[in-house]
Design brief:
single chain, alpha+beta, Aminopeptidase, two-stranded antiparallel ribbon, 14 strands
Length: 361
């Protein structure tokens, strides 16, 4: 009789524990689902708020039909601008402070990034002559920058993302900072977003907040525009790594808030969602490309003259990655990195010439 009572007590106790676990699991599932729906709706609202289609440009002139990111290889031009009140230039009249072109291959879910030195002397179709590529945005806004990049690499630019400094700072801060191996020749103090020398940068691996990351992305007079581009690529990789981590899930609310207020793009929300597939197996393979060149002050104004051979190689790599020409997998010369499947660089010969102290904007 006592054994029966003990068995009943054990059975009742087990049943109670099972019910509690089941209830907690159901509650957790409901909370996660609700949070997912909330984040999705908020992201959709932010995307709609950020959407800014370029007039009379349904697709690139170099495309026969509009691409579908869910199945096609695509390219995205990231444009960083300083549209602060202090500059007084506005988002469409300011010079581009950063230009990074990304190509995405849908088959192997890989990404290639190329930073374009802002002082590169290139042909700007909008004005019909050569000038610094940073001036293209000042001449004709986003479309002028897109056309210039298309002319430079002879590939279509399918989408653009234009962000100001506030977006950059807020996104990094919303992530709780990013870990970056700060690649600078020596320690120095750099300007913050308000042009005050308040950011102390030290070489080496460290955690950076938004203002520090921006200062690092902008600094160039201590080495070169090429090294500046490499640092921008390192920062973008660090942001991608942190944003795709489990710890970032609870921070998506703040990230979306930061992006929605400070970004413009011609991607719809559905098109944005299609890029999630690149994160299905964690951080995708990201190869970084470098445009080699040389410094020129022959006219009294500083220009970065792109090396024609390096430019042609980069064109070939990007065209191949987009599937516009047959794939030549060895041409990039990439070296497989060990840091979360991120490649080190696509060009071993990085120019790091010291800038002339009389750099002109």
């Amino acid at each position: 009789m006592k054994r029966v009572e003990i068995k009943k007590k054990k059975s009742t106790k087990f049943s109670l524990i099972f019910k509690i676990i089941l209830l907690l699991s159901a509650s957790l599932l409901i909370c996660v689902t609700a949070y997912g729906i909330y984040i999705t709706k908020k992201a959709e609202h932010a995307a709609n708020k950020s959407f800014e289609e370029i007039a009379d440009r349904e697709q690139s002139d170099k495309r026969q039909a509009k691409v579908e990111p869910v199945q096609d290889n695509v390219s995205i031009l990231f444009i960083g601008v300083d549209d602060s009140e202090k500059r007084g230039q506005g988002s469409e009249n300011s010079r581009s402070d950063a230009l990074v072109l990304a190509t995405l291959n849908n088959e192997d879910k890989s990404v290639k990034l190329v930073s374009i030195p802002r002082d590169s002397k290139v042909y700007i179709p909008y004005v019909g002559y050569e000038d610094k590529i940073t001036h293209a945005h000042a001449y004709g806004g986003t479309l002028a920058s897109i056309k210039t990049v298309e002319e430079l690499f002879d590939i279509p630019v399918d989408y653009y993302v234009r962000m100001n400094f506030n977006a950059f700072i807020d996104v990094v801060d919303a992530l709780g900072g990013i870990e970056v191996d700060v690649d600078i020749p020596y320690a120095f103090t750099e300007k913050d977003e308000n042009d005050r020398y308040s950011i102390r940068l030290e070489p080496g691996l460290q955690q950076l907040n938004g203002s520090q990351a921006l200062a690092l992305a902008r600094t160039r007079k201590h080495d070169s525009d090429i090294m500046r581009g490499k640092r921008q690529q390192d920062i973008l990789k660090a942001i991608a790594k942190k944003a795709s981590s489990v710890s970032a899930i609870t921070k998506y609310d703040d990230i979306i808030e930061a992006i929605g207020d400070n970004m413009k793009t011609d991607m719809t929300f559905d098109e944005m969602k299609s890029f999630f597939s690149y994160l299905s197996n964690g951080i995708p393979q990201i190869d970084t490309l470098t445009l080699e060149g040389s410094d020129d002050m022959s006219t009294g104004i500083y220009y970065y003259l792109l090396d024609q051979e390096s430019l042609e190689e980069t064109q070939h790599i990007l065209k191949s990655h987009l599937g516009l020409i047959p794939d030549t997998s060895d041409i990039s010369g990439t070296m497989s990195g060990t840091n979360n499947n991120l490649d080190v660089t696509a060009s071993e010969n990085i120019q790091a010439d010291t800038y002339n102290s009389s750099l002109q904007q």
